[in-house]
Amino acid sequence: MDAMTIRRTRGRGRLYDSILDTVGDTPVIRVNNLAPEGVRLYVKAEAFNPGASIKDRLALNIIEAAEKSGALTPGQTVVEATSGNTGIGLAMVCAQKGYPLVVTMADSFSVERRRLMRMLGARVVLTPRASKGTGMYMKAVELAEKHGWFLARQFETAANADIHEATTAREIIGDFAGDRLDYVVTGYGTGGTVTGLARVLRKERPETRIILTEPANAALIGSGIAQARGAGGAPAQSHPAFEPHPIQGWTPDFIPLVLQEALDNGGYDDLIPIAGADGIAWARKLAAHEGILTGISGGASFAVAMQIAEQAPPGTVILCMLPDTGERYLTTPLFEGIPENMDDEEMALSLSTPGYRMG
Fold first, then answer.
1. This model's pTM is above 0.90
2. 90 contacts 152 by C-beta, under 8 angstroms
3. Rounded to whole angstroms, how far apart are CA atoms 20 and 259?
């Protein structure tokens, strides 16, 4: 290769004091092969966070906000209910800052998530899948009350949406400065992303339409049924519209208090449900055709972004949030049918030359 054509890098121009300083500033990447002609479609790849998900942002802010307020004291144990990504983010933050961490998680979530948290030093307490998200939530509350631990409360804390207002939204504003941005597409887990984005985009980019999406078979918002709440806005019970769905990290069996702000204040323009199977299909297409590895939740948001792109006029600019990496889903339906061993085609390739054959 001609030396003039070699890609060159120069470093980031700074030295980092800890892994926590690398949270945020994730890249916005153009989708070149799947996007319809004439439409610019981008993804914000949150897998570039050090813990490989968007939840690193809220995990860091929850802990630092609690340190500043005095709600979390040195050496105190942190406890939280999570489907995995928040727990991994908290485990990373707590490992760096020296806090013990206990995570409660329904046993239906992928095994690699609990192993990653344990690798980072957390203890993981599993709850029965039949008790759904409210079960793991209530278990965390019980443990915090019994042992005097700090409950992170990702579903209620103001620190959640605040960090997306201060970082995620500001990054989008900066990256699209002087350019069109017609749509932003996102799902919801805690609701922090859409709530934080809405606070900024509604003021500074009012022309940008915010599209919210949720599982078609667990359409809690689409049902129009209000969430029953207990003390502090915590869920009092499972939402009646919930059904189990394969989009891990999305839509627990209750509407989080953090999301309620966006619902009450018009923080989104349209709600588009999506089937879990479509999320899986589009996550696979993103990997195979764009080299972008995301999970089922990212695939589901991207499926909706593609629906919009296919109907949009030329010149439309769309941004889709991709919350995490596909590596969080190795033991889920996302990787079903993807073999560990060689298939017939691969075996034929192996046999096409005489050396180093398997079998």
1. yes
2. yes
3. 26
Active-site residue flag, 55: yes
Instruction: Give the pLDDT mean for 11-28.
Output: 97
Tell me if residue 303 falls in helix, strand or coil. Answer: helix
Task: Give pLDDT, residue 2.
Answer: 56
Please report, for the chain, the start and end positions of each structural domain, with discontinuous segments joined by +.
11-48+169-335, 55-151
pLDDT per residue as tens digits for the range 84-129: 899 999 999 999 999 999 999 999 888 999 999 999 999 999 999 9
Classify 53 as helix, strand or coil: strand
**What CATH architecture is 11-48+169-335?**
3-Layer(aba) Sandwich (3.40)
Catalytic residue among 83, 110, 297, 301: 297
Give me 147's structure tokens: 């042992």
Q: Which of 44, 55, 132, 139 is catalytic?
A: 55
DSSP per residue, 101-154: EEEEEETTS-HHHHHHHHHTT-EEEEE-GGGHHHHHHHHHHHHHHHHTPEE--T
pLDDT 10s digits, 249-261: 899 999 999 999 9
Reading the block at residue 80, the tokens are 């939280």
